[in-house]
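Retro notes (design track)

What went well: tokenization of the new backbones is finally stable.
What didn't: we kept losing track of which sequence belonged to which structure.
Fix going forward: every design gets posted as structure first, then sequence, in one message. First example under the new rule, 246 residues:
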């Protein structure tokens, strides 16, 4: 993976910039050297110093260009943890969107083929993969995965199948043809109805170890009065259906 962009940080300010880029701020103009590296310090023309940091996973969520609501880091973490996707794995993904999950998978070393039906979204995702430094590992295809299932099923099987689309059950029905033996499936859905359909499709396909998780995260608050979970809400984002190919 190559470092395609860096964060220039000072206090609560963060600017995502590429080597050779010039960017104006109220603290002066930042002129990023071509040979910049993480850990360097870059000063504006007014002498204000910014620390240079390499792009990390959480930075992708905060700084990649968005085309909608991207998958939350906690959901990405669950997908990564339950599929175990890593270097050398081949991952088939659908519902690219902003490309947060695809970028994480690529940065973990997996080779990802991801489908996005919206051509403009796909263009943004390709640019985001370059920013994340994984354009050589993540291929963003414009199109509907359901229309490519026959061709993909005849090719080399994938190690993991990750889906974030309304028609995910149609793909799940063919999961045993798309995955290697023991390969992992992860389906994300914000709605119970879509989740149930994915579970039924997984059962029909004869997949093993089918389970469904609701993703909830509560922030903790610590004060002089005491410690407790935040009352701002339970932090529900969606449901994950997980399974493995027989």
């Amino acid at each position: 993976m190559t470092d395609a962009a860096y964060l220039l940080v000072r206090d609560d300010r963060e600017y995502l910039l590429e080597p050779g880029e010039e960017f104006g701020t109220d603290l002066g103009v930042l002129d990023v050297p071509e040979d910049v590296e993480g850990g360097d310090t870059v000063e504006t023309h007014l002498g204000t110093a910014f620390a240079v940091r390499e792009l990390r996973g959480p930075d992708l969520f905060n700084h990649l260009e968005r085309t909608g609501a991207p998958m939350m880091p906690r959901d990405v973490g669950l997908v990564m943890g339950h599929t175990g996707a890593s270097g050398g794995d081949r991952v088939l993904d659908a519902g690219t969107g902003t490309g947060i999950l695809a970028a994480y998978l690529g940065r973990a070393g997996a080779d990802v083929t991801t489908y996005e039906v919206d051509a403009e979204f796909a263009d943004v995702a390709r640019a985001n993969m370059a920013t994340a430094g994984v354009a050589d590992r993540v291929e963003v295809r414009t199109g509907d995965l359901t229309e490519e299932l026959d061709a993909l099923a005849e090719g080399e099987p994938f190690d993991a199948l990750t889906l974030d689309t309304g028609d995910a059950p149609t793909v799940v029905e063919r999961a045993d043809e798309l995955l290697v033996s023991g390969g992992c499936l992860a389906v994300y859905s914000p709605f119970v109805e879509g989740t149930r359909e994915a579970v039924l499709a997984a059962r029909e396909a004869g997949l093993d170890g089918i389970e469904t998780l609701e993703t909830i995260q509560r922030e903790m608050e610590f004060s002089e009065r005491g410690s407790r979970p935040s009352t701002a809400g339970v932090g529900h984002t969606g449901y994950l259906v997980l399974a493995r190919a027989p």
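Added context from the reviewer: The longest strand covers residues 179-189.
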